[in-house]
Each structure stands twice: as structure tokens, then as C-alpha cells.
Amino acid sequence: MDGSRPGGPVAGGGPVEVRRSARRRRTVSAYRDGNRTVVLLPARMTADEEARWVSVMLDKLAAQESRRFLDDGQLAQRAADLSDRYLQGRARPESVRWVTNQDARWGSCTPAAGSIRLSHRLQGMPEYVLDYVLLHELAHLLVPGHGPRFWRLLEPYPRTERARGFLEGVVAAERLPYVPGARTE
Can you say whether residue 103 is alpha, beta or left, with left for phi > 0 and alpha for psi between -120 and 50 degrees? Predict the structure, then answer.
């Protein structure tokens, strides 16, 4: 017998529906159905496990969706939306674009020119990570450096710490002398 629970957290602007199934033993999956996200879980999961898996699956879907690369125009629109939402529209860059010559940093900003450049390495990362880096660079249009005033601008973004952790994990993985689980023949 299947159990379904509408509502729940909001994903990408739409509701999340959790469906539990006694026939489902181990697997968890999720998909978008219009503006709604449906997460399929085994019936035996606890509420804590459900909350964790819903979060994991929302992140996975966001990562898959962000692999649909944004062009520079879409990136500029995303920056404008983030500025409106988190910075009261005060950060208005003249240009926002992808670049392929930034391997040591995720993004850069030239406040005098009003330009933001994001590393192509961000393409395919979860949306919340891209949004964090964009917001970080937008904040630099308002406050140079990384002092307390700068970090206060990022406080309203709810996934700052998670995005920073994700990026730190990517950097750490790149520094490994080998890829775990890779076979050498």
C-alpha cells in the first residue's frame, strides 16, 4: 500500500510531495511534476530519515537541472534576481559572464567596471552553489574585501554555509593524489 503526503518543504518555488511505499525497500527517488517535486521513499523510514532524504534528493535534482548550462544572458538575469531578492537590488553589475581562465577561484569581481566573472568549473554544480558564488560576487560590488560588513550581506542567503562546504569538498577532492574507488589497470 502506498502512502502519500502532500505539502512539505518548498523546492524551486513549488511544493514537495512525499510518497511512501511498503513495496519500496531501499531505493529513494525523486522527480519534478510541473512545479511540484515528488519524492518516493520506503514506508519504513523515520521522520528524520525522510527529512534527510528529501533534502538530498532536492539537491540532486537541483544539480541535474543546473547541468543545463546557463548562457551569459541567463547568468546576468540570475544575478539580477539574486540582487533583488537578497541585496534589495543594490548590486547591478554591468556584465556577468562565464570564463575559462579561472582555475584557482570560483568567481571574481571588478567593482570599478561592474563586471563579474564566474569560473566555467561551476557549470553543472548544484544551483544553490552557483547562486552563492554569484551572490558573493554581487556583494563585492557593494563592499570590497571580506570584512564583517561583507559577510552581513550574505547572511540572508540560507545556504551560504552549505555552498561553502560543497566548494571546500570539491577543492579537497581535487587535491587527492588519486580518485577513491578508481581502478588502475
Answer: alpha
> In whole angstroms, what is the distance from residue 71 CA to residue 29 CA?
29
Considering all CA atoms of the chain, what is the largest pairwise distance in Å, rounded to the nearest integer? 62
Task: Return per-residue pLDDT of the chain as tens, 185 residues.
Answer: 344 444 444 444 578 999 999 998 888 999 887 778 999 999 999 999 999 999 999 988 887 765 667 889 999 999 999 999 999 999 999 999 999 898 889 999 999 999 999 999 998 888 999 999 999 999 999 999 999 999 999 999 999 999 999 999 989 888 887 655 555 44
Query: 39 in the Ramachandran plot: left (φ > 0), alpha (ψ -120 to 50) or beta?
Result: beta
What are the C-alpha distances in Å from 143 to residues 35, 76, 185? 36, 20, 51
Distance separating alpha carbons of residues 56 and 58, to the nearest angstrom: 6
Query: What backbone phi and psi angles, to 5 degrees, belong to 149?
Result: -60, -40
Beta bridge partners of 29: 40
C-alpha cell at 54: 528529501
Q: Is the dihedral of CA 162, 166, 167, 168 positive or negative?
A: positive
All three cell numbers of 32: 519534478
First to last CA, the chain: 47
